[in-house]
Design brief:
The chain has 18 helices and no strands. With 439 residues, the protein is mainly alpha-helical. The radius of gyration is 29 Å and the shape is globular. The chain starts with a helix and ends in a 16-residue tail after the last helix.
Length: 439
Amino acid sequence: MIALGLIFLAMQIIGDSSRAMAAQPDARTVLHVLDSHPGALLILATILTVLLQSSTASIGLALGLAQGQLLSSDALVAWVLGANLGIAGTLLIAGYPTLEARRLALAHLLIKGLGVAIVFTVLGPLTAWMHTLPLAIPRQIADFHTGFNILLGLLMLPAVPLISRAARLLIGQPPEFREKLAPGQESFLSEDALETPSLALAHATREVLRMNDECQRMLAGFWTAYERRDVEAARQVQTHDDNVDRIYNGLKDYLSRITEDQLGEKLGQWQMTLLGFAGELEAVADIIERHLCVEVIKQVQESVKFAAADAGSLADVYAQVRERLLQASSVLTVRDPATARDFLHGQDRLSEFCRKVQHAHHLRIRSGDRETLLSSAAFLEILGGFRRINSHLGTLGYAVGTQGRSRRPRAVPLPEVAAPEQVTQNSVPLPEPRKADSP
C-alpha cells in the first residue's frame, strides 16, 4: 500500500509540475511544435521513459501536460506508444548481462514494437474515434494505455512459440562456454555475519544458490558442446568444476564455524540442509565434468551419432533435468514444505520417464535398429548421468519437505526399473559398455 501510494503521490507531483510548466512560453512553443509531429513525440517519449525507467512516470508527465492543455489527444496517444517502447528498451538494458533475460527482453521489445507499428498506422482514425467518447482526455489516455497492453498481450499469446524462436535466433548461444566468475568477485559469506547465526545462514543460503547457478551453467555448457560436437567447449565446461569445488569448500568451512549451541532446532536443521545439498551439488558438478563431458569427447573422437529417436529422448530428459535445477533454487528460496514435497515427487516422475526412455531404447535394439545398437553405450551413459543428477537433487526436496517433523516420514517408493536382460530376451545382444578414460 505504501508503494502504491508513492506512485500516486509521484504522479500528482509530476502533474502539478507539468501545469506549472504550461505557464512558460518557451515550453508551450516547443510542445505545440511537437504536437503536430507525432513521430518525433513518440521518439521523445521513448527516450524519456528509458531515462526515467518507468512508463508510469512518463505517462503521468503526459497527463500533467494534457491538463495544462499543452498536448492534444492525438499527441498523447503517440506519447503512450513511446512510453511502451521505452519501458521495453529499459528491460532490454536491465537484462542484457544474462542470456535468457536478454532473449526475454528482446521478445518483449519485438511484441511492443509490432503493436506500436500497427497502432501508429491507424493513428488518425483511432484518435478520431477517441474524440467521440464521453470521457476526459486523461481518462482516455489511461484507458488507452491499459487497453493497448491487454489487447496486445491477448493477440500475441498464440504467437509466443514463434516469438521465442525469433528471440533465440537473433540472440544465439555463445560459441563456447566461457562464462566465469568475475575477477575479484567476493562470495556471499560474510565474516561479520557469523556473530548472528540466522544472518550467517542467510548468507550461506545465497552461496548455495550461487553454487546451484554454477551447476546450471555447467549443464547448459555441456548441452551446447553435445549439440555442436565441440570437444573444446566440453573441456572448457570441465574447468568450471573447480569453481563449484571452491564454493563448496568455503561453504563447509563457514558453516562449521557456527557451533551447535548458537543454533536452535530449526536453524540447526537448516544448517544441515545447506551442508547436505551443497554436497549434492558438488556431486552434480562432478557428474557433468567426469561423466557427461567425457562422454561428449568420446562421441566426437569415435564418431558416434545417435538415432533420431534417441537424440529426441535425450533432449526431453535434458530439458527436465535443467528444469529440476531451476526448481531447486525456488525450493531453497521459499523453503515451503509443500513446494519441497512437490519437488521430491518430481524426482519420481523424472525417474519413471527415464525408465520409459530406456525401455523404448531397448525395444528399438530388439527390433534390429543397427544405428541404435551401435550408439547404445553412449546413449545409456548420458541417460545414466541425467538420472544420477536427478537422484542427487531429490535430497533437497526431502530435507526441506520434512523440516519441523518429529519423526522421519515414510519414503515415497520409487518406480522399479526393468533390468536390461528382461527387456532384451531373445533379441540382439547389447554392446559392452565402454571403459572410461579416467577413474
